[in-house]
């Protein structure tokens, strides 16, 4: 018999909430736990043909970018029982992308983030910058997905 991924009391029951909101919530929490900087969440639900949410952050070193991506994967697997559909960028580590279909996490080095400017490219989306000492609960369109909400 295999052990559960986490204590049931710590898990979010995805059937009670919007799955994309819950995944985005835990992605933001994981990024912040590993000290990702300039964390921005884009609500893409009003735009056609894209994910529901983008979580965008940056880190100055390859090691930190990989640590953030690894922690997001681990947290979402433990909390939401989800694995990314697609993962890109682990080889070069300048831009690591974790695609959960409805939630896409972008972990950039500052130079690449400045070059690609996703926030400007998707400027029609609602977006919230999360304070480095903040939490996912500070994002209005994710706050209902907080574990105690």
What does this structure look like?
This protein has 4 helices and 6 strands. The N and C termini lie far apart (33 Å). Mean pLDDT is 88; it is low at 1-16. The chain has a single domain, classed as Beta Polymerase, domain 2 (2-Layer Sandwich), CATH 3.30.460.10. Strand 4 and strand 5 (103-108) form a beta hairpin. The chain has 149 residues and is α+β, with helices and mostly antiparallel strands. It has a 6-stranded mixed sheet with strand order 3-4-5-2-1-6. It is 30% helix and 21% strand.
Offer a quick outline of the entry.
With about 150 residues, this protein is α+β, with helices and mostly antiparallel strands. About 30% of the residues lie in helices and about 20% in strands.
């Amino acid at each position: 018999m295999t052990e559960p991924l986490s204590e049931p009391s710590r898990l979010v029951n995805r059937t009670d909430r919007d799955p994309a909101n819950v995944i985005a919530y835990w992605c933001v929490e994981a990024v912040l736990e590993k000290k990702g900087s300039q964390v921005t969440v884009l609500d893409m639900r009003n735009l056609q043909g894209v994910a529901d949410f983008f979580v965008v952050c940056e880190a100055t070193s390859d090691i930190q970018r990989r640590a953030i991506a690894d922690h997001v994967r681990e947290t979402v697997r433990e909390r939401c029982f989800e694995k990314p559909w697609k993962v890109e960028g682990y080889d070069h580590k300048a831009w690591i992308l974790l695609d959960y279909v409805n939630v896409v996490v972008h972990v950039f080095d500052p130079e690449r983030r400045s070059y690609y400017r996703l926030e400007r490219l998707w400027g029609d989306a609602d977006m919230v910058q999360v304070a480095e000492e903040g939490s996912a609960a500070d994002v209005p369109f994710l706050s209902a997905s907080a574990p105690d909400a």
